Request: fold
Amino acid sequence: MDIIANFFSFLFGAVVGSFLNVVILRLPDSSQSIAFPGSHCPKCNTELHWYENIPILSFLALRGKCRTCKSKISAQYPFVEFCMGMLTLALFHKFGFSLPFGLYFLFLAALLVIIFIDIHHQIIPDTISLPGIIVGFAASFFNPLVTWQQSGLGILTGGGILYAIAFGYYFLTKRDGMGGGDIKLLAMIGAFLGWQSLLFVVFASSLSGSVVGIAAMIKQGRGGQTRIPFGPFLALSAIGYLFFQEKILWLWNLYLSSMQ
Reply:
């Protein structure tokens, strides 16, 4: 039974991941719909048959090429499907099939889309973050893990922290260092995970972002003009907190006790 449940939870996530690929590709372009037309090759526009749309397996069977025009298919497609499948499997192991499972499934799907859109376009669509703030707060009235007070304070604190950082950076450098999308994203994270998650999310994302940013500065040789999207670091830190918050809080309490 466990093997079957694990298989179907991964399969469900991978199938949703296939749809997320469409969202990632089309959402940044306001002229495209995420619903129509159906899945097709982005090069030759040939509509895909059902057997060309099987998550992960179709990519492997086609050897990463379009069956019609033989153009290469981005490895991002099976990667997103695999990631969503594994995240869904991890959610199942943490929550089972429950209300938190459904709530955080939506949260993780939104974060995965945000990661790849921000990487490609350096934008975080308001059409994801703003409804996410509302859904996260509304769900807190039923969410056994986060109270509505924690969620509401998370929204205010999350948006306020990054707004203060962005304002301070602009005040000192007269350059925009952080977009409004990052501010709304942290508010959404606060809505779903509560204010208590924000210290870790901000610290972990800043640390990892700094490491990657320094490496990018060295590689590109552009110094302070180097720009990297910050949204993926916020999203990955939020995912880390969701699955490992007990261990994170244990380490934090251990640190506090060592300081006494």
